[in-house]
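Query structure, 362 C-alpha cells:
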C-alpha cells in the first residue's frame, strides 16, 4: 500500500536513531576511499621501496641459483629447508608492502566512520538466505547506483592508460637499443605515471562517492512524524502512563495524609474552602507541624475525618490561608506564625482540659 502523506520520511534522523544505526554497523561509508588509499600506498611503496624489493629479490634468486646443487630436493629434509628459505625470503620482501596496504585500508575506513566494531552485519540470519530478498537487494536502487560508478571507473582508468601509452608509444622502438635494466626502468616509469594519474582521478571519484553515500545514508535514516513521536514517548515516557503514575502517587499521598488527620491536635478551617491539620508534641517537635491540608473536596474530607475522630475544628481564615500557602505537609510552621498557632492550640487545650505546654506559649 502507498504510504499516507503523514507517513512520508520527511524528518531528519534523531541522535538515538543515528546511534542505533551505528551500533548495527549502518554507517555512511564509501568503498572508494580505502581503495584509492590502498592504491596510493602501493604506488608510494613501489616508488620509494621498489628498488629495495628488486635488489632483495635478485639477492634471493642469486642465492638459489648459486647453491642450486646443494638445494636440490633429493630428500624430505632438503625440500623442507628449501621451502622454509623461500617462504622466509618471500615474507621478508612482501611483509612491508602488505603492512603498508593494511594500514592504508584501515585508515581509509577509520577516516570515514571512526573506530567502530559491530557484529550485526556478519551475524548469520535466516532472512539472508531468502532468494527473493537477495534478488531485491541485487536490483535495488543502491545496487544499481554502483553500475554507472563502476563504468565511470573503468572508462577513467582505461582512458588514462590509453593516453599515456599513446604518448610514450614513439619511444618504444628505442627500447630495442637498451639493456634489460633500462627497459625495465622505462616500463616502470610508464607504469608509475599511469598509477599516479589514475590515483588523482580516483581521489575526485572517491570524494564524490563519499558525498553520495552520506546523502543516501541520511535519506535512509529519515523518519516519519509518527516515528519521531513514538521515539519521544520511549525517551520521555508515554504522557498517558506518566499521568496515571502521577495520579496514583497523588492518591497514595492523599491517603497517607488522611490517615494522619485523626492524630492531629486541631484542624484550622477557612471555614469551608480550606482545612489544615496541625499536630504538636512538645517532647518530639520544636514547633507544630502540618500533617494534612487541602482545599475544596479534600478540605471537606479532612473536616469529616476530624469530626469522626473528635479533632477540634477552629475557624481562623487569615491563619488558614497563611498556613495553606506557606507550609507543606510534614513541615513545621514558620516562626512568624508561632504566636497565632499557639493561641489556637491553647484554646484547644482548654477545650480538652489540658494545660498548655510552655512550648505552645512561645
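Result returned for the query:
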Amino acid at each position: 500500500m502507498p504510504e499516507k502523506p503523514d507517513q512520508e520520511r520527511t524528518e531528519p534522523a534523531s541522535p538515538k536513531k543515528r546511534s542505533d544505526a551505528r551500533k548495527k554497523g549502518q554507517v555512511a561509508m564509501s568503498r572508494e576511499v580505502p581503495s584509492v588509499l590502498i592504491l596510493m600506498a602501493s604506488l608510494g611503496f613501489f616508488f620509494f621501496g621498489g628498488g629495495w624489493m628488486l635488489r632483495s629479490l635478485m639477492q634471493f634468486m642469486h642465492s638459489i641459483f648459486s647453491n642450486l646443487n646443494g638445494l636440490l630436493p633429493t630428500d624430505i629434509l632438503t625440500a623442507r629447508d628449501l621451502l622454509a628459505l623461500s617462504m622466509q625470503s618471500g615474507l621478508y620482501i612482501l611483509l612491508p608492502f602488505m603492512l603498508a596496504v593494511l594500514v592504508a585500508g584501515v585508515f581509509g575506513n577509520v577516516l570515514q566512520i571512526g573506530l567502530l566494531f559491530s557484529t550485526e552485519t556478519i551475524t548469520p540470519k535466516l532472512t539472508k538466505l531468502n532468494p527473493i530478498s537477495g534478488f531485491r537487494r541485487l536490483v535495488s536502487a543502491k545496487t544499481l547506483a554502483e553500475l554507472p560508478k563502476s563504468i565511470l571507473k573503468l572508462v577513467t582508468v582505461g582512458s588514462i592508460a590509453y593516453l599515456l601509452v599513446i604518448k610514450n608509444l614513439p619511444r618504444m622502438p628505442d627500447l630495442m637499443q637498451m639493456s634489460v635494466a633500462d627497459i625495465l626502468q622505462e616500463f616502470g616509469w610508464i607504469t608509475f605515471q599511469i598509477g599516479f594519474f589514475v590515483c588523482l582521478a580516483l581521489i575526485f571519484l572517491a570524494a564524490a562517492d563519499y558525498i553520495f553515500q552520506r546523502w543516501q545514508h541520511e535519506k535512509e535514516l529519515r523518519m516519519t512524524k509518527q516515528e519521531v513521536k513514538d521515539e519521544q514517548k520511549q525517551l520521555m515516557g508515554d504522557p498517558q502512563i506518566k499521568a496515571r503514575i502521577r495520579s496514583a502517587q497523588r492518591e497514595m499521598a492523599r491517603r497517607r495524609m488522611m490517615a494522619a488527620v485523626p492524630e492531629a491536635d486541631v484542624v484550622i478551617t477557612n471555614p469551608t474552602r480550606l482545612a489544615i491539620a496541625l499536630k504538636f508534641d512538645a517532647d518530639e517537635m520544636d514547633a507544630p507541624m502540618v500533617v494534612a491540608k487541602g482545599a475544596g473536596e479534600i478540605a471537606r474530607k479532612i473536616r469529616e475525618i476530624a469530626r469522626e475522630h473528635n479533632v477540634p475544628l477552629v475557624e481562623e481564615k487569615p491563619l488558614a490561608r497563611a498556613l495553606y500557602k506557606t507550609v507543606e505537609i510534614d513541615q513545621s510552621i514558620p516562626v512568624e506564625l508561632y504566636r497565632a498557632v499557639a493561641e489556637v492550640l491553647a484554646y484547644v487545650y482548654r477545650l480538652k482540659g489540658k494545660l498548655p505546654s510552655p512550648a505552645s506559649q512561645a
